[in-house]
Write a structure and sequence with these properties.
- By secondary structure, the protein is of the alpha+beta class.
- Helices cover 36% and strands 17% of the residues.
- It contains 14 helices and 12 strands.
- The strands form 2 sheets. Strands 1, 2, 3, 4, 5, 8, 9, 10, 11 and 12 form a 10-stranded mixed beta sheet that branches. It has a two-stranded antiparallel sheet with strand order 6-7.
- Strand 6 and strand 7 form a beta hairpin.
- The chain is globular and about 75 Å long.
- Bound molecules: coenzyme A.
- Coenzyme A (COA) binds next to helix 6, helix 7 and helix 8.
Length: 426
């Protein structure tokens, strides 16, 4: 039998709206800080860590292997290898799965997994023609030769090229895709706003009563490093159903229902978890928060309903765990958009989805709203793409322990039509 993989601890930076608290930091800075804090808090010997895997969706061109830079910066030994993965918004859960595989296969006993994203520091590119002119000019030997490549440029070649939060194969933005799902699945504005309102009220409650506190670290800001960020800055304690209902739709201004209030915001942040084989954890005297029971990845056609991956990944992970939805004490579903959460819940509860997509006669099961995202979700807390999976895994493991629950399920939808699901157990 492969060793069971324990989640010992999780740590994340406070999440901040892009362009605010962390506007002068990079994803590496954020990842490094939370990784260092994770090591310090758990009092492990950094030399125990045999592998580090981190997720990032929009990497820096200067430090594309975020995991390695962050691990070195966090004080992990230079001998500890590290690599970065990109499974879009499911990158940190993929990182957790990769470290879990290393532990299960006996390649490592201790690893760190997580991810980071800085949407305040996305690479801004020149147009292709401008880039070609720059390269040509750099090779020229005379002043005339250096200037000539720029003569043929048109004003539009000077416009910077920023990364789009869109599906490359269809050109639709994530928000437009959520809008399409809301319309095709008949998800009402009221349903979406209710999910958003619950996300904010539950996140506020979990922050105020201290449930989320153990996962947060402080981030000292440059240049003096005297000011520290200690709390998420996106949770709105004043959110009301009326305020949400008054917001205009963003992605289909005429007929749409997806708004700034019921979408996850563009966010900066990092998160990481410490994983260890069960045997090593007990030898070192650590009490795990939870164990990884099973996981699964699935994908749908991105040209259809883009964010329905969890509807396939969840039953797959549950099957691998030998469990059913009703066995779950808690469910953490990443909230990219309220419309995506509602659409996936609808699919899990639908006979047609079971028959047509899963070749089953019975629906996957009912998602009990009282078990879902009990500490709030990505709409309220924010969604640094590469980090979210580690935030969710850490919150789920800790809350499962606090409630003395047995099983927990998490799911994340991702660009490319993918979905990731993982079952934790205690
Ligand atoms: C939806 C989106 C475009 C909104 O961006 P934005 O306009 O910068 O959002 P803001 O935070 O400024 O909110 C817009 C307005 O709504 C208001 N608002 C947002 N959430 C609210 C809430 N919960 N309650 C009340 N008002 C709210 C803001 O106060 C702001 O009002 P103002 O214009 O009077 O200042 C952006 O968050 C986005 O692109 N999200 C999707 C990210 C994505 O694609 N992720 C990938 C997932 S797969």
């Amino acid at each position: 039998m492969p060793p069971r993989v324990a989640i010992l601890a999780g740590c994340r930076t406070p999440f901040a709206k892009a362009g605010t608290a962390y506007r002068d930091l990079t994803a590496v800075d954020l990842a490094k800080a939370c990784m260092r804090e994770l090591v310090e808090r758990t009092e492990i010997d950094p030399g125990w860590v045999e592998t580090v895997v981190m997720g990032q969706v929009i990497p820096s061109v200067k430090a594309p292997n975020l995991a390695r830079e962050a691990a070195l910066g966090a004080g992990l030994p230079a001998a500890c290898p590290a690599h970065t993965v990109n499974r879009a918004c499911a990158s940190a859960t993929q990182a957790i799965a990769d470290v879990a595989c290393s532990i299960q296969s006996g390649h490592a006993e201790v690893g760190i997994a997580g991810g980071a994203e800085s949407l305040s520091d996305v690479p801004i590119l020149h147009s292709r023609r401008m880039a070609q002119a720059l390269v040509e000019a750099s090779r020229a030997r005379s002043l005339g030769g250096r200037l000539r490549p720029f003569l043929g440029l048109r004003p539009r070649d000077l416009v910077p090229d920023t990364p789009a939060i869109a599906e490359p194969s269809t050109g639709l933005s994530m928000g437009q895709s959520a809008e399409k799902m809301a319309q095709e699945n008949g998800i009402s504005r009221e349903t979406q706003d209710r999910i958003a309102w619950l996300s904010h009220t539950r996140a506020a409650a979990a922050l105020d009563d201290g449930r989320l506190k153990p996962e947060l670290c402080r981030i000292h800001l440059p240049s003096a490093y005297e000011v520290a960020v200690e709390a998420d800055n996106l949770v709105r304690r004043d959110t009301t159903p009326e305020a949400l209902a008054a917001l205009p739709p963003v992605f289909d201004r005429k007929h749409g229902s997806v708004t700034a209030g019921n979408s996850s915001p563009l966010t900066d942040g990092a998160a990481a978890v410490l994983l260890m084989s069960e045997e090593r954890a007990s030898r070192e005297g650590y009490e795990p928060l939870a164990f990884i029971r099973a996981w699964a990845v699935a994908a749908v056609d991105p040209g259809g309903q883009l964010l329905m991956g969890p509807g396939l990944a969840i039953p797959k992970a549950l099957d691998r765990a030998g469990l059913v939805l009703a066995d779950m004490d808690l469910i953490e579903m990443h909230e990219a958009f309220a419309a995506q959460v509602a659409s996936n819940i609808q699919a899990l509860e639908s006979e047609a989805w079971a028959r047509e997509k899963l070749a089953r006669s019975e629906p996957v099961g009912r998602v009990d709203p009282e078990k879902l995202n009990v500490c709030g979700g990505s709409i309220a807390l924010g969604h640094p793409f590469g980090a979210t999976g580690a935030r969710i895994a850490s919150t789920l493991a800790r809350e499962l322990k606090r409630r003395a629950g047995r099983y927990g399920l998490l799911s994340v939808c991702a660009q490319g039509g993918m979905g990731f699901a993982m079952v934790l157990e205690r």
